[in-house]
Amino acid sequence: MRYFLFLSACVVVMYAATAEDIYRIYKTKGIHAVEDFLKKEFESEEPVKSKEIKTPIEVKVPAKEPKVAVVKTKVPTEKELISKEFWLKQIRGMDIAYGYYEALDSLIVCEKDKKHCEVYKNSNDNGLELVKSHDVIMGKEGDKVKRGDLKTPVGVYEITKRFKPTDPFYGPLAFSLSYPNLFDVLRGKNGSGIWIHGMPLDGKDRDDLSKGCVVMDNDAIKILDSEINAQSTMTIIGESKVPKLSKETVATLLSEVYKWQRAWKVNDITTYLNYYSNDFKRADGSGKTQFAVSKKQIFSRKETKTIVFENLNIAPYPTMDNRKLFKIAYDQTYKSPSFASKGRKELYVELVGNKMSIVAEK
Q: Would you identify the CATH topology of the domain 247-361?
């Protein structure tokens, strides 16, 4: 213990005596002599005042936050929503040639006669932007009507699933489409299993064996997979040229949708029913007469309703007879004292002049 104290003391008094001096005293006179020596050293000398070194104090200045432009999202008024002029301002500068989409990542536009598909990315600010074009193989001429007719359907379809086919005949990858949709079913069309898929893995030619599907080279379908979000992609298929939309048409449809909604909110049954075609059918197959009876009964209660539309999409709907049809889909929240619901809704509408006419509803 004393040896430890001795070494510690050595360090403390290095300024007064050298290590050699202390070691010599220890060897000749012992540890007690060292203690006496150190005691005398501390008593005889004033403590050496070490020069204080002032360390500059670091003043931390809070970093300035970058100035970010705060964009205030203004909720449109009911008056604005029903105004065509308001919507023309909203879509100014957007590419809406193949539709207006609030809730869609990707769009595929196919033309059967050209054996050609275009892939678009969608953004809420700029609308549609072309990503790439692909050559494809499609089914026989004409719209699909029944199972086994080997025709590719004409219409608007969502991708419902991305998967790897178990049969190598369909290539390395496939995307199933939502054929038949409501409009197809109500017109008596049937069949199923319409895919976008690749070529046989064994390399066999299948130019005449589309069976109604959209067929791509295997390299191309892998590229397509990287270009789209399969969970948010719509496909428009036309027999020939898919009709392009003008901003006037899109603004008209948007204002008409919200005028129809307003009539519904305020229980204006006459205006509300005037938005339905005489050929209108619901998903259960019932026509306008039966539908009107049900709605008149509900509207007669004069209930206060909350009806909110969100994530609204409008797509041109190609037809063989070139009707001005559109598919409109949106998330609807409905609440009244007697009933409440929330879900995705679909309308198939025709534009007659500047008036929206609903031909099918789900």
A: Nuclear Transport Factor 2; Chain: A, (3.10.450)
